[in-house]
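Progress note, project year one: complex with S-adenosylmethionine.
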Amino acid sequence: MDQLLAALRAAAETTRLRILALLAKGELTVGELVTILAQSQPRVSRHLKLMCDAGLLDRFQEGTVVFYRLADAGVGEKLHQALVPLVPEDDASFVHDLKALSEIRQGHFDKAQDYFRENAASWDEIRSLHVSEEQVEAALLALQGGGKQKRFLDIGTGTGRMLELFAPYMNQAVGIDVSREMLAVARGNLEQKELENCQVRRGDMYKLGVEAGSQDLIVFHQVLHFAEKPAEALREAASALAVGGKILVADFAPHTEEFLRSEHAHRRLGFADEEIIHLGEQAGLKCSAVKHLVGGKLRVTIWRFEGLSSGPIVGKE
Ligand SMILES: C[S@@+](CC[C@H](N)C(=O)[O-])C[C@H]1O[C@@H](n2cnc3c(N)ncnc32)[C@H](O)[C@@H]1O
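Model obtained:
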């Protein structure tokens, strides 16, 4: 009862309700909330602390940046799930907040697009500075499960390297990317290598535009750290997965290289196993393998997910 009353009290205030409604759209940093709400940082921080203490929000620090998101357990979760749909969509403050949020997101998108535009031709080279590609690719192939599969979807295909890697094992391989420049580079690569079972198209990881339950293998290779809403991206991928299909996520383990955020448009400085596994569970997926690849400045981890109906859970390596 005390917990419920504390959570109710924490939610019962205009700014705090606005914060709940905003975070329902995706995780945000304290700086972003300050910009959207147009209130001082100490004031916003006070609201956030109160809501975290009451179990409505979770806070996590990554390098110099603090993120907030809606709690995903306990009374707090149930309460925000009940409250957020009741916030009137035409409320003037909320309309203002949504507009400011979309401007912030557009800013991130533009920054990432500029980055990809500038780096499209040399991305393969930049990537090789961070990790041993051969090791990662061998591990990805080992984790895919073998045998010829029908349909492969490469989310955030970039230069199309994952299409090239998996094409021999697939009947049909499609790469999607939001960046026209990246797609142009990928098309050039695929044509040059005469990979006739591969194609690329413009698409968004949050709205894949493929038939539900149609894909046997889906890969996110060095893509999720750009995502504002990694949970939503995994959910969208999960709904595209065929029965018995697999999702491979390759990304950095948590790191402290802030320059990747400031200069290379990364949103997240890597992911801990617990976080990705939890996001997968929320998307209705179970993690069936985790592979840590040590070597290089940034460590790479590969997480393999499957639908809840298939196979036993395999351990970590
Ligand atoms: C670091 S590159 C990785 C490319 C590729 N997966 C590889 O391993 O070579 C990240 C790619 O994700 C794409 N991307 C970023 N946000 C995206 C989104 N919302 N939907 C689809 N692709 C996106 C970028 O345009 C970029 O090509």
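Residues 112, 116, 156-159, 161-162, 176-179, 182, 204-205, 221-223, 226 surround S-adenosylmethionine (CB under 6 Å).
The chain has a mean pLDDT of 88.
No further modelling is planned for this target in the current period.
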